[in-house]
Design a protein that fits this description.
This protein has 160 residues and is of the alpha+beta class. Helices cover 32% and strands 33% of the residues.
Length: 160
């Protein structure tokens, strides 16, 4: 995948199902070294999208990374500056896809006059975001479906 050109574009309604597959594979395969199977199943129960998935993506600034016409990653930014979702296919990890998406997220935030971005990052996202200049605020445990997962509250100042 490293030789392919990454194109970043805005979300379209027909992206909902492919982005759900990206999310599911990123969680189930990409985070296997950091989270056990029970935790991954709680986080991403099924590859099929829940009923609110299209609205969740459409209600935020959702940026899609494509290679050869197929979605390989995406990030969502709430209008309040919260980085909600950030996922890349396992085979696209380490190939610049996340960095390209992150650069566009920053540009979108700055264009809207946002000065602070926030997120709750997984172990993998935490490492990536630290390299992008984010600051870890606190480690925390969240509960999803009765299963506890560790993540990290983080923030990044932008626009200055």
């Amino acid at each position: 995948m490293t030789a392919a050109v990454t194109r970043i574009r805005r979300f379209r309604p027909e992206d909902a199902a492919p982005l759900r597959r990206v999310f599911w594979r990123a969680v189930q395969e990409g985070t296997a070294a950091a989270y056990d199977q029970r935790q991954r199943d709680a986080w991403a129960r099924a590859p099929e999208a829940p009923p609110d998935w299209p609205e969740r993506l459409g209600g935020q600034i959702t940026l899609v990374a494509e290679r050869d016409g197929a979605a390989v990653g995406f990030m969502t930014l709430g209008h309040d500056g919260h980085l909600d979702l950030a996922f890349v296919l396992p085979e696209a990890m380490g190939t610049g896809v996340a960095a390209a998406l992150h650069d566009r997220v920053l540009a979108e935030a700055e264009a809207r006059g946002l000065t602070l971005l926030t997120t709750e990052a997984s172990h993998l996202a935490r490492r990536f975001l630290l390299r992008q200049g984010w600051r870890e605020i606190a480690a925390q445990e969240v509960e999803i479906g009765g299963v506890r997962l560790k993540n990290f509250r983080m923030e990044k100042r932008v626009g200055r």
